[in-house]
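for the recovery benchmark. tokens below, seq after
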């Protein structure tokens, strides 16, 4: 049996604690319902909604302070004082007057404060950043009606950092400890931990562990002890390079040509369908994991969802599509945006409302260190749209670097679902890969409405197949795949193979039928002898 792994850390509070690990950055994926079964609330876009959320947050903090000791009360009073500071509300209001949604205006305002604190020379000032992060997330939770849940008593809290209010809301009488990847021995949580004799270490570096794994915190020596199987996650410079292709070799056409078969997922739980014979995740529709504008503004929540997918995918590639919202895909709380009134969708909406794109870009950049991530842009029409989004990723990567947060730039490709893009695919030189979305491609090619496009698919199929065949030739050797509904229909498989496609991504339920059909076909789409 392998020996336990002992990681060096910095002591923040003395004592020794053991218990099951609670991984703070791996919450369950959000759903459209609240934990009590009630539907998720719609988030009003006005300043009144923010004022109400701030009042709710102050009330929560005041209740938390009831019966608290003097040190705890001082910390809570500091947070209440910040929430009541009129300059924060005014700065948020100014952003809203510039047509920013209330949630993103709040996030941008608080992120500016957090950035200033994190860049401070004094550790005491840098440690205050987590207090502002605490306030930011508390108000976000009030806006969305999703307060931060407690964690099991007796657990060892594992995460990048810990919010003071989360420490104060937890029952430490049954033991437990804290192990932080970053954190500060000068921060408020460390002060509280020492006051309540909770063993705590900081600066462990990011390490892997499963939720519930036995873990020990040695606050005397400054160490974390992981059971066999735990490991320190390498820094981005040590991590393997990403790639959008796989060499599983598990599936071949009847004449021996390798064919990749991936799956499309809408929810992290669907990755259970990813078995050794599957090439990877060819499409994760990120908008299905974002129930409201508050979720879209919550970087940590998105990071937790994407990280869960990559870690469960192991060494298989995962392509996550950025939020395809707008048009007939509304997002609760964004109804007041001018971009929506203009009918924008996909990448056009993301570029028109860059605050949405920047949060998701940061979450994806941070996710990329956990596996083979590629990012796909929705509804791309013109090459400059990719260039502008790539600039956003570069800018956010620089900010993450200044904050010393692990991250890596993933390959950025595009959905091919607009006929104008398909006809000019050779001009998209900055795209790392292409994936055909036949649902929208068929709709726009046949001038169909959303409701009638399914009925028109059969009639439009010859035109769609011809356009795909032309576009594959224009791809100039870059990786090409197909993830639309046509990929999951055996009836269209011969034509898609004949068009030159060798990578198919389908719904998990359609995979067995497509796999069987591929085995019976030659790579040019003709039936194998004897079939």
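predicted aa per position
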């Amino acid at each position: 049996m392998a020996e336990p792994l002992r990681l060096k850390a910095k002591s923040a509070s003395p004592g020794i604690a053991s218990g099951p690990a609670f991984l703070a950055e791996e919450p369950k994926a959000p759903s459209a319902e609240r934990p009590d079964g009630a539907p998720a609330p719609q988030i009003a876009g006005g300043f009144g909604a923010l004022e109400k959320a701030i009042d709710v947050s102050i009330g929560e903090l005041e209740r938390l302070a009831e019966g608290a000791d003097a040190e705890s009360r001082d910390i809570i009073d500091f947070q209440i004082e910040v929430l009541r500071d009129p300059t924060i509300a005014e700065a948020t209001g100014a952003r809203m007057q510039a047509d920013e949604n209330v949630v993103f205006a709040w996030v941008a305002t608080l992120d500016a404060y957090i950035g200033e604190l994190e860049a401070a020379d004094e550790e005491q000032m840098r440690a205050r950043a987590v207090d502002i992060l605490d306030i930011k997330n508390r108000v976000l939770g009030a806006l969305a009606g999703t307060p931060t849940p407690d964690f099991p008593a007796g657990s060892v809290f594992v995460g990048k950092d810990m919010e003071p209010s989360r420490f104060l809301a937890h029952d430490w009488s049954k033991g437990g400890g804290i192990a932080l990847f970053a954190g500060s021995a000068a921060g408020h949580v460390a002060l509280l931990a020492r006051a309540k004799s909770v063993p705590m270490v900081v600066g462990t570096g990011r390490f892997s562990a499963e939720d519930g794994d036995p873990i020990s915190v040695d606050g005397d020596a400054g160490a974390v002890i992981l059971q066999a199987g735990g490991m320190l996650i390498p820094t981005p410079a040590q991590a393997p390079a990403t790639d959008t292709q796989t060499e599983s070799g598990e599936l071949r056409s009847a004449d021996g040509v390798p064919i990749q078969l991936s799956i499309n997922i809408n929810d992290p739980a669907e990755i259970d369908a990813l078995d050794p014979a599957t090439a990877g995740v060819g499409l994760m529709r990120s908008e299905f994991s974002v129930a409201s504008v508050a979720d879209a503004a919550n970087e940590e929540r998105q990071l937790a969802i994407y990280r869960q997918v990559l870690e469960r995918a192991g060494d298989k590639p995962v392509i996550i599509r950025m939020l395809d919202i707008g048009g007939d895909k509304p997002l609760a709380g964004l109804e007041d945006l001018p971009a929506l009134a203009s009918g924008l969708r996909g990448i056009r909406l993301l570029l028109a409302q860059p605050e949405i794109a920047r949060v998701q870009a940061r979450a994806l950049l941070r996710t990329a260190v956990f596996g083979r991530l590629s990012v796909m842009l929705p509804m791309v029409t013109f090459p400059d749209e990719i260039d502008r989004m790539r600039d956003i990723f570069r800018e956010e990567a620089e900010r993450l670097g200044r904050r010393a947060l692990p991250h890596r730039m993933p390959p950025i490709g595009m959905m091919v679902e607009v006929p104008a893009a398909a006809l000019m695919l050779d001009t998209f030189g900055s795209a790392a890969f292409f994936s055909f979305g036949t649902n929208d491609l068929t709709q726009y090619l046949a001038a169909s409405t959303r409701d009638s496009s399914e009925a028109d698919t059969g009639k439009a199929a010859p035109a769609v197949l011809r356009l795909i065949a032309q576009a594959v030739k224009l791809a100039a050797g870059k990786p090409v795949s197909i993830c639309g509904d046509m990929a999951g229909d055996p009836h269209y498989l011969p034509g898609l193979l004949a068009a030159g496609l060798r990578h198919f991504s389908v719904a998990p339920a359609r995979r067995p039928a497509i796999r069987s059909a591929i085995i019976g076909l030659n790579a040019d789409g003709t039936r194998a002898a004897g079939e």
